[in-house]
Amino acid sequence: MAAMTVRQIAPATGKLGVLTPGMGAVASTFIAGVIAAREGISAPIGSVSQMAHIRLGTKEENRNPLIKEFVPLADLGDIVFGGWDPISPNAMEAAKTAGVLEGKDLDSISAEMEGIVPMEAVFDQRWVSRLEGVRVKDIPNKWDQAEALIADMARFKEENGCDRLVIVWCGSTEAYQEPSAVHDTVASFEQGLRDNDDNISPSQIYCYAALQSDVPYANGAPNLTTDLPCMIELSKTNGVPIAGKDFKTGQTLMKTLLAPGFKARMLGVRGWFSTNILGNRDGEVLDDPENFKSKEVSKLGVLDGILQPEVYPDLYGNIDHVVRINYYPPRGDNKEGWDNIDIFGWLGYPMQIKVDFLCRDSILAAPIVLDLALFMDLAHRAGESGVQEWLSFYLKAPQAAGDVPAEADLFIQQTKLKNTLREWMGEQPVTHSEAG
Amino acid sequence: MAAMTVRQIAPATGKLGVLTPGMGAVASTFIAGVIAAREGISAPIGSVSQMAHIRLGTKEENRNPLIKEFVPLADLGDIVFGGWDPISPNAMEAAKTAGVLEGKDLDSISAEMEGIVPMEAVFDQRWVSRLEGVRVKDIPNKWDQAEALIADMARFKEENGCDRLVIVWCGSTEAYQEPSAVHDTVASFEQGLRDNDDNISPSQIYCYAALQSDVPYANGAPNLTTDLPCMIELSKTNGVPIAGKDFKTGQTLMKTLLAPGFKARMLGVRGWFSTNILGNRDGEVLDDPENFKSKEVSKLGVLDGILQPEVYPDLYGNIDHVVRINYYPPRGDNKEGWDNIDIFGWLGYPMQIKVDFLCRDSILAAPIVLDLALFMDLAHRAGESGVQEWLSFYLKAPQAAGDVPAEADLFIQQTKLKNTLREWMGEQPVTHSEAG
Amino acid sequence: MAAMTVRQIAPATGKLGVLTPGMGAVASTFIAGVIAAREGISAPIGSVSQMAHIRLGTKEENRNPLIKEFVPLADLGDIVFGGWDPISPNAMEAAKTAGVLEGKDLDSISAEMEGIVPMEAVFDQRWVSRLEGVRVKDIPNKWDQAEALIADMARFKEENGCDRLVIVWCGSTEAYQEPSAVHDTVASFEQGLRDNDDNISPSQIYCYAALQSDVPYANGAPNLTTDLPCMIELSKTNGVPIAGKDFKTGQTLMKTLLAPGFKARMLGVRGWFSTNILGNRDGEVLDDPENFKSKEVSKLGVLDGILQPEVYPDLYGNIDHVVRINYYPPRGDNKEGWDNIDIFGWLGYPMQIKVDFLCRDSILAAPIVLDLALFMDLAHRAGESGVQEWLSFYLKAPQAAGDVPAEADLFIQQTKLKNTLREWMGEQPVTHSEAG
Amino acid sequence: MAAMTVRQIAPATGKLGVLTPGMGAVASTFIAGVIAAREGISAPIGSVSQMAHIRLGTKEENRNPLIKEFVPLADLGDIVFGGWDPISPNAMEAAKTAGVLEGKDLDSISAEMEGIVPMEAVFDQRWVSRLEGVRVKDIPNKWDQAEALIADMARFKEENGCDRLVIVWCGSTEAYQEPSAVHDTVASFEQGLRDNDDNISPSQIYCYAALQSDVPYANGAPNLTTDLPCMIELSKTNGVPIAGKDFKTGQTLMKTLLAPGFKARMLGVRGWFSTNILGNRDGEVLDDPENFKSKEVSKLGVLDGILQPEVYPDLYGNIDHVVRINYYPPRGDNKEGWDNIDIFGWLGYPMQIKVDFLCRDSILAAPIVLDLALFMDLAHRAGESGVQEWLSFYLKAPQAAGDVPAEADLFIQQTKLKNTLREWMGEQPVTHSEAG
User: Fold this and answer.
1) The pLDDT of residue A436
2) Which residues contact A14 (CB under 8 A, 6 or more apart)?
3) Domain Myo-inositol-1-phosphate synthase GAPDH-like: where (chains A, B, C, D) (predicted)?
4) What does the alpha-carbon distance between residue A238 and residue C22 come to, in Å, rounded to a whole number?
5) Shortest Cα distance from B11 to chain A (angstroms)?
6) Strands, DSSP E only, in C359-394?
7) Contact yes or no for C174/C203 (Cβ under 8 A)
């Protein structure tokens, strides 16, 4: 095959500040797990960057290093934690409130967790009506809020001696709203900030402030933040990577495992009914139809992206796809998803599949936060800007870098992630064909 | 990238005889569906060779033909059906007994189905104690049985004006038995046939006869037939493709969808409990512990093949994997599989997944029979011999062509299948990386 | 024990007309099954009146007749079918549209089914917005509508030579509405009819017309019809039995099996999440939040009725009970219910139960229609009037005859039904104690 | 109704020793929960004797006391714990090994738990091959073993100042064996003890010793102990109550909830497939086919007892009933049961029910131990001897007191239990009929 050129990538020296807007269940679980991994208490299970091997060359060559030994990632020991939150006083309190982790897993790291105190948040209840913010910046104008966030980042970087920062949105889902004219260009957006435009949500202000501070921004919620034309423009102008959107956990993770399999085997799908029960803050927020709307759009698209009804109208052109989320306090943070899938095969005969997933959302999301932080930082050092489509592996509603829609199939996404790393490091992509 | 060379493939002219040892539920469903597809009654759902598209070049090129229009496969209209069975008088009776297809789906094709009369079988109740053969060759010596099968094939080819033949084993699972010295070489096997060696099972005689008749042989059961050194040797000497083993349907299909997903996301697996209930002839046969043993070995291996416990001991080194099959008459041919999967993630927290698959085994197996027949014939015309590892996509316990174990991950298998076809036709493999 | 007095019951001579307002899935399935039972094609499975035995005296006496041989019920051969429907032209078309029964089960009885033509309905889309009536009485005033129904019944009785009539409501669920002043007394209701009062729904007009025609009325939907003070008054004044409400099928049937068991064993309940998917006319109607409201009220009450949170606040005082109904066309008439139940036991330890019920609503409802018709007719001949609480066995939200709430526990309801019949016939109630 | 006579019952004064042969998961959970209840830490959830109310007279009378305030039961504060075990050094160690209760629930009661030291067991690995006893009486002859147990009880009673003793078997399931001639009479059994007869198992020696010591004996395992003619004879001769057999928990509990419901509604049952996965000592023991045999016999009978196929051959005469138990370590003590039930209704149409019960066996069994202990002691004081059929509510395979088989229907069993108590106390039985 053709020779490959190695990408120039700046080394991962110095400290990396990982900032999370939102320091609730997901962020505190992420922080606790990284601390535990640093102290050798538990392996960072679920983190591809830390745990996965990557095959290089042919199988016979038997080269199969850990990803973290193959590409120059920041070391877990070099991570400094920070963020913003309208409610939690520190990461330990956030973890206790969330109830994801048991007391015995928090006791030994409580001092360090208590020391991680979020900065006051940019928050507006109009976008998350079920929450009440108490640790909120008392700044009325949105331009001024952006300036304050930029100052927060500069101060955090200096006080903690960080070489670089990266942001991963771990906050709640905002109410759904179509993009408007204010989101068209950087110029219109900046005018909107000054005008305190109603269409600008808090997550957009965080994203703008990050990109203006040369800080990569990954979007873990279904908010449209990183999809907005102004943000894509700014990320390219400023040379900062962005990625979105919505951590791929729970039921949608399961969908992106199963749907590619049905398609691989050319089995038709007639219906897919998904219902969730969950009892945490996320469940409360999504019980509000406006916030659920954002989530629903993000969740419904995933099947079409994988199954390509336009190519396979007989198999996938007539799917009743229903998604429901129910606030059900007895479940606590342990979300449960029940799927009923109606498929059909040879001669049109129907079959049914029921999947009951007794899942833990924050446990599944935490390693995604880590991987997105490390890979976004890597991309930044590798000179990338704009949408990092190769990270769609981690995201429910992946953004495309170009005009062709992003892949939704988890296995193609995985291949894309690994082959991108191989290419950057000057290795041949793996094709699994006879010759490779 | 480097230029690719197109493989020389003989054209698919003339008729193709598809012979199935075993004309029960699977074979009769396969036949009925192909007839229905020929007559435009139903699309051949589940058949990758007939329904799937294959992307060529980059996404932007927008080249996406059907596989059957990309590679020179035999046309459905050119297939002639035949086989051997110890019980069924014809394909229509087999279909009625099996109860897979409803009366309304059989009525319009009953005449053609009745005309498909299996030849008398080589059968030995020692290997399938729960069945009683009535349409069995009255030939005591195994060498003579092989000769009779060779004669059957020659006669079938001539009487039906076939250009080529292919065999897909659709018979029952034979009792488990380790290979013995008689299976070491072609010479020792032929001596064993003459000596009526107890270690030689009927399926082995079919396979030997096929390879001596230049007929490719695919193995749809967990029998060790095509794994035997003598058969691999013979397939290479005679230049005939073989493939095995065990149609990938039902619960194992589901496993090969889910397990790669857990591994992709580096989620640990602590246990996997699988139970099946089924009420058909297959269920009766597998209720016998000796026959179940063959199946169990085939089913248990699949997880290790995918999860690589030797590479990931912390995640996959301690899995309690239990597989049970239960004869339960109320279910009829509609097998049901229930899986409980215990996984763990970040900080070792456990999660559970329950999958209830109300499945139809023969409906899932029938398109595999078609695809294996067409692709084995293609491989033959393309000059292949020995194990066709690129067809492991269809098989529960895939055989490797070389020393490295075959891939068990359905999605890598799919990539392998498609990239093999691309290479044969002189197209670049698809890598899904930025560059491809 | 004390001697019992036998009740005077008029004999079941002559024909019994069973009229159903609503001739859709449930009514057509009921009719088809009774015809099949009459012709010996199938036993009336699910019908307690036809299939169940009743133990008399002590076990040692070994007296265990069929209920239908113990009490003087109308014979299946004496039933004449009729009804009203805004859509179906006849029972055969209704059955075909419903898709509950397969063609092969309808073919042999199609002539008889086609001959059962519903009368034009009293219908108002305001109460069932998802349906469009086409076979509707063109009578604007509600008093006149009631008169027309009374005339319908008189004519039906005469034309068919019926000795007696009984009505079982098999129509759709009407939009939820609290009772208003017009429902207080018979006088106010009659004035409302004349005034075309908006608060009077079609089902109320049917019920009024029935009671004025000396025809017992059973209410198979969650409509508040038979609960209204005016109807209870009229049923007593006129000496006609009424019963309500809502056929106990599907998920609620399951609830009334399971909840009494938890209570019997003093296991606590922390939450009960119930979701339904169904694709028939009922599903479409209930997809409208106004109609679902009626259903939800009927479904939610059942747990409290059984578990008595006022008596057991520690066990049942804090239950999150959620009920959802989803229109999901792939399921057709085969409703599926999935329940998650969170219980707790010794030392407060939690346990979970998941129940997936692949159910057929009309198949479960049809024998209830039969039993209610026959038992209401029996009660009428036995001189009963007012609410027939002993029939609460069949009903989701049973009405009480007096001030004490009706029992919701299926097993107490069963005891009540059987002991009521025993008492009417002069037999001792069964107590299952040492002495009895 | 007729006047009732009050039974003479001796008062529950003084201490009650509750002895459990077997001090493993069930017994230690029972002990921990009673201690916690005494100290007000947790209510004794699941205990009918402690938590349930009982209605007296008509509903209108509104008399509804707690059972424990209605009948003279021993007070929880008066219970003294003891037992025998071949492995556990004390109740605390047993609880830790079992892993049923979390550390936080054991910490505050650990001192008391550690003080409960089982006596050395009569144990024979021939009957429980998967266990190795270490704290075992070194007495070879069975007669001498019985004498030693009798001495143990006398000493325990005296040392602890007990007024009365009661035994509840909480040990493992013994290997299945049909009764033999040695079990025919007390005389033959005593001769067998002297002869060290192979057919006499340890549980039989415990039972014999109890009955000779005037100590009631309840059998929580499927061992045939209390069914043996010699034991029934001895219990009557000596005036001591016995009860058996097999605590009704988990899947069988679920069966006795559901099956009565199907029968109440006259729904047919075509098949019932039950599988269990569990990872505790019980699971290990039952993985041995000989021990499973005892369990299987006990579990399979329950459906016939409820459904009466002899009375309802069309509905229940052809049931495929399969029960499987699987040792699956990831589940630990948290047994999980999955049931598939195939039912049929009107016109024979099939429906399916799947029940997944994430259960905790010891949590369900512990309150049964308490109730059996208290009610057996009550029965003893009430002058009862022989089989206590009214306690069949708690038992999987209930023994009948006379020739008529015992009721298996949980709801009839509940009625029987409560009406028995009502009768003993001179109250009318409740019939739920119009009159009562």
Assistant:
1) 43
2) A78, A161, A162, A163, A164
3) 250-362
4) 68
5) 22
6) 386-387
7) yes
Q: Are D256 and D405 in contact (CB under 8 A)?
A: no
CB contact under 8 A, B320 and D330: yes
User: Touching check for D357 and chain B: CB below 8 Å?
Assistant: no
C366 — contact with chain D (CB < 8 Å)? yes
Contacts D338 to B, Cβ<8 Å: 275, 338, 340, 354
CB contact under 8 A, D331 and B271: yes
Minimal C-alpha gap between B92 and chain A (Å): 16
Closest residue in C to D104 (Cα–Cα) = C347
Write the burial class of residue B5 (CB in 10 Å: 0-12 exposed, 13-18 middle, 19+ buried).
Answer: exposed
Determine the distance from the C-alpha atom of residue C137 to the mean position of all C-alpha atoms in its chain, rounded to a whole number: 25
> D269: number of CA atoms within 13 Å, CB side?
27
The candidate with the shortest Cα–Cα distance to D238, out of D384, D375, D74, D390, is D384
- Contact between residue C101 and residue C363 where contact means Cβ atoms under 8 Å apart: no
CA gap A12, A72 in Å, rounded: 6
Amino acid identity of D315? L
For chain D, say whether B97 makes contact (Cβ under 8 Å): no
d(Cα D269, Cα D275) in Å, to the nearest integer?
18
Buried b (16+ CB within 10 A) or exposed e, B25-63: bbbbbbbbbbbbbeeeebbbbbbbbbbbbbbbeebeeee
> How far is the C-alpha of B354 from the C-alpha of A51, rounded, in Å?
26
Q: Look-up: residue for tokens 């897993």?
A: A105
Structure-block tokens of residue A171 = 């906050």
What's the token pair of residue C98? 């419903």
Per-residue pLDDT of chain D (436 residues; tens, 9 = 90+): 444 578 899 999 999 999 999 999 999 999 999 999 999 999 999 999 999 999 999 888 889 999 999 999 999 999 999 999 999 999 999 999 988 998 889 999 999 999 999 999 999 988 887 788 889 999 999 999 999 999 999 999 999 999 999 999 999 889 888 899 999 999 999 999 999 999 999 999 999 999 999 999 999 999 999 999 999 999 999 999 999 999 999 888 999 899 999 999 999 999 999 999 988 777 777 777 777 777 777 677 889 889 999 999 999 999 999 999 899 999 887 889 999 999 999 999 999 999 999 999 999 999 999 999 999 999 999 999 999 999 999 999 999 988 888 888 899 999 999 999 999 999 998 877 654 4
Q: What percent of chain C has pLDDT over 70?
A: 98
ipTM: 0.93
Instruction: Name the residue among A202, A223, A224 with its Cα closest to residue A149.
Output: A202
Element (H, E) at A435: none
Say how far residue C415 (Cα) sits from the centre of its chain. 18
Q: CA–CA distance from B206 to each of B141, B225, B282, C232 (Å)? A: 14, 9, 20, 80
The contacts of residue C272 (CB under 8 Å, 6+ apart) are C255, C303, C319, C320, C321, C322, C339, C340, C341, C342
H or E, element range at C167? strand C162-169
The CA-CA-CA angle for residues A34, A36, A42, to 5°, reads 105
| Tokens describing residue D281 | 């000592």
Domains of chain A: 15-247+363-424 (3.40.50.720), 250-358 (3.30.360.10)
CB–CB of A266 and B390 under 8 A? no
Cβ-based neighbours of C150, under 8 Å, separated by 6 or more: C209, C212, C213
Interface contact A275-C324, CB threshold 8 A: yes
**8 A C-beta contact, residue C17 and residue C82:** yes
Report the alpha-carbon angle D240-D244-D245, nearest 5.
Answer: 160
What's the rounded Cα separation, in Å, for the pair D116 and D50?
23
